[in-house]
Write a structure and sequence with these properties.
Elements lengths: L10 H12 L8 H8 L4 H42 L4 H16 L3 E8 L4 E8 L4 H4 L2 E3 L3 H9 L3 E3 L12 H10 L3 E9 L2 E10 L7 H63 L4 H12 L2 E5 L6 H10 L3 E3 L2 E8 L2 E9 L6 H41 L5 H10 L8 E8 L7 H17 L3 E5 L2 E7 L6 H16 L3 E9 L6 H20 L6 E3 L5 H11 L3 H22 L3 H10 L4 H8 L3 H15 L6 H20 L2
Parallel strand pairs: 14-15
Antiparallel strand pairs: 1-2, 1-6, 2-3, 4-5, 5-6, 7-10, 8-9, 9-10, 11-13, 11-14, 12-13
Helix pairs in contact: 1-3, 2-3, 3-4, 3-8, 4-8, 8-9, 8-11, 9-11, 11-13, 15-16, 15-21, 17-21, 18-19, 19-20
Length: about 650
């Protein structure tokens, strides 16, 4: 070895030791060689200096590798420490991503988790990201680099993602990568057991090669992240189980008291029913139990929205004024129980109110059965007034007195029937009769099922109005049976028990009014004869037998040839005329109403013109024809 002179001996070697001691960059290790050459060192000395440089660089690399390993081990230790004191999963995952980014010297690091329900993987944590679109990315299984890692459970790396054709590029993923400006990307799977739950990434905004050590390091962080997620899930399950146990404990503690309380309520309601109590007795009993005010509401007083919700759910529901429990049976509303003074109800109290509503419905049905028996007797009296006008008035008055019906005052006669002919089944007629009987009893009147509908005989005061009474009755009965009800009114009859024949005449007029409403398309409405103008005069006259012949003569004189033609040929000229006038005398609208071709309409109207004369469409003739059509329809409906 040459001497120790700085120029020729130990000087270069000492320089390398100094470079190592100060952690100089790799390019600084070339300076001693350049200096030796500049000083004219011998070839042997130059060779020795070159050898020393290589040794120094090897030592430097070993030192760098040791420092890097120490930093990695320190980061992994810190991550394990975080896991040991896991409180916030997001905070732990963010720490893992930041450490991975720092140790790999990456511009960004991020972590995605698989969504089994959606069948894709979504961004959970990012560090170094600046793009909002990128932070909200979702990758389908097999899509992009991350989707491929999630699908195959293998790490993937690329020096330039957008140029790498190994991956399935999508517009959404590529747009997010461009927004973030990423070029080189490394992704490793987060594995839990035999499955992949997500992907951990490191990425640079320039071309870069990730070596095996860096891939292994990122995989170590991915393993820690998977453990953190699994630990967090186990903690959540443990907390949930503890909460369930606490709830079960509380339920068990309250169970005996709840059962005892419910049994007491049940016994009290049962005893009340057996003693023959009424609906208001139930309300008073529940008031004491629930420490609030409970009242029974008749059907017409029920708050409609709340009652409908209660009927639909079969439960007590919250209302502005408290709680509402519908009282119903067989789809029919019988009333409601309303609780006030208790903004909140526990399940037992709510069930108590619902049970009280069920008991109330049973009581209502029982009382209704008894009431229906009485109403049948009242209906028989009304039938006798209509069918046997020659009955002894004294006997009629005695029967009325027993039924608490004062038939020595003016009364209206009203005929009611459901507006929908297809809904006129026995159950619907029974429901209509039941509702009408109840309403008649509350007004000290009579009701009977008759002619497919119901007839009512109601007291008529000096300030009452037949039309208003008919319309009000149509609304009340329609609400009770949940279907439109049409009502025709006649009278008043001065004293039904003294003039029973007048009741039969008024009933015939009321029926004609009802049929007139139906023919005129006013089903579900109520009216008296005076509401129909000229038609009403004809109805009243026909009911009393005065002008029935005139009505027939008017129909025959006005549209008789058309009616006869239809009768002989089986054609539809009358129906075509009806549709023609209803459509504003427009053939186009007429053919739409009849579902025929416009040429068919033209041919029929031409036939009408030949039968009625060329002036049949003049205003005066057209008015007469329309009136005759209405009267013809009414007489047909009444069977005249």
């Amino acid at each position: 070895m040459p001497g120790t002179d700085d120029r020729t001996g130990d000087g270069p070697f000492a320089a390398y030791l100094a470079l190592l001691a100060h952690g100089a960059p790799a390019e600084a290790y070339e300076r001693p060689v350049l200096r030796a050459r500049a000083e004219g060192a011998s070839p042997d000395l130059l060779a020795a200096v070159e050898h020393a440089k290589l040794l120094a660089l090897r030592v430097r690399a070993e030192l760098e590798d040791r420092r890097r390993r120490e930093a990695e081990l320190s980061a992994l230790f810190a991550t394990a420490h975080d896991l040991a004191g896991l409180r916030d999963l997001d905070a732990v995952l963010l720490a893992i991503v930041r450490r991975a980014r720092s140790l790999l010297g990456a511009d960004a690091a991020y972590l995605t988790l698989n969504d089994p329900a959606a069948g894709d993987t979504y961004m959970r944590v990012t560090d170094g990201s600046v793009s909002a679109r990128f932070q909200q990315l979702r990758l389908g299984m097999g899509e992009g680099l991350g989707g491929l890692v999630a699908q195959t459970a293998r790490p993937y790396v690329t020096e330039s993602y957008l140029d790498d054709l190994r991956f399935q590029h999508t517009r959404t993923i590529d747009s997010g990568v461009r927004d973030e400006g990423l070029v080189a990307i490394l992704g490793v799977p987060l594995e839990l057991g035999s499955g992949v739950i997500g992907v951990l990434f490191a990425a640079d905004r320039r071309a870069r090669v990730f070596d095996r050590q860096q891939i292994a390091l990122l995989a170590s962080f991915a393993a820690h992240a998977a453990v953190a997620i699994d630990t967090a899930n186990l903690l959540a399950e443990t907390r949930s189980a503890l909460a369930e146990l606490e709830t079960a404990n509380a339920t068990a503690r309250d169970r005996s008291a709840t059962i005892e309380r419910a049994a007491g309520i049940h016994d009290r309601l049962t005893e009340l029913v057996l003693r023959g109590g009424g609906v208001h007795d139930v309300a008073r009993a529940v008031t004491e139990v629930l420490a609030g005010h409970v009242e029974f509401l008749e059907t017409e007083d029920c708050p409609a929205p709340a009652v409908e919700r209660s009927r639909a759910d079969g439960r007590a529901v919250r209302d502005d004024d408290g709680w509402i429990a519908a009282v119903s049976a067989g789809g029919e509303l019988l009333g409601a129980l309303r609780l006030r003074g208790r903004p909140r109800l526990d399940p037992v109290d709510r069930r108590t109110l619902e049970r009280a509503a069920m008991v109330t419905s049973l009581l209502r049905l029982a009382f209704r059965s008894a009431d229906e028996a009485e109403q049948r007797v009242r209906g028989e009296l009304l039938d006798d007034l209509i069918d046997a006008p020659d009955r002894d008035p004294r006997l009629l008055r005695e029967r009325a007195a027993r039924l608490r019906a004062a038939l020595d005052t003016p009364h209206l006669v009203l005929a009611a029937r459901t507006a929908d002919e297809h809904a006129d089944a026995p159950a619907d007629r029974r429901r209509l009769w039941s509702a009408a009987s109840h309403l008649a009893a509350t007004r000290h009147g009579l009701a009977a099922a008759r002619d497919g509908g119901t007839v009512l005989l109601l007291p008529h005061g000096p300030y009452d109005d037949a039309t208003r009474t008919a319309r009000h009755l149509a609304q009340r009965l329609g609400a009770a049976v949940h279907a439109p009800v049409t009502v025709g009114a006649a009278g008043p009859v001065p004293a039904p028990d003294s003039h029973p024949g007048a009741v039969a005449t008024a009933y015939a007029e009321a029926r004609r009014c009802l049929e007139a409403l139906r023919v005129l398309g006013r089903g579900g409405d109520g009216a008296a004869a005076e509401d129909f103008g000229f038609l009403g005069l004809l109805l009243t006259g026909a009911a009393h037998g005065h002008d029935g012949a005139r009505v027939g003569e008017f129909i025959t004189r006005t549209i008789g040839p058309v009616v006869d033609y239809d009768t002989r040929r089986g054609t539809a000229l009358v129906r075509t005329l009806d549709a023609y006038f209803a459509g504003g005398m427009s053939p186009a609208r007429t053919k739409d109403a009849l579902h025929v071709h416009v040429n068919t309409v033209a041919q029929r109207l031409d036939r009408v013109g030949r039968l009625l004369g060329p002036d049949w469409q003049t205003p005066a003739r057209a008015l007469e024809i329309q009136l005759a059509l209405r009267l013809h329809g009414l007489s047909t409906a009444l069977g005249d």
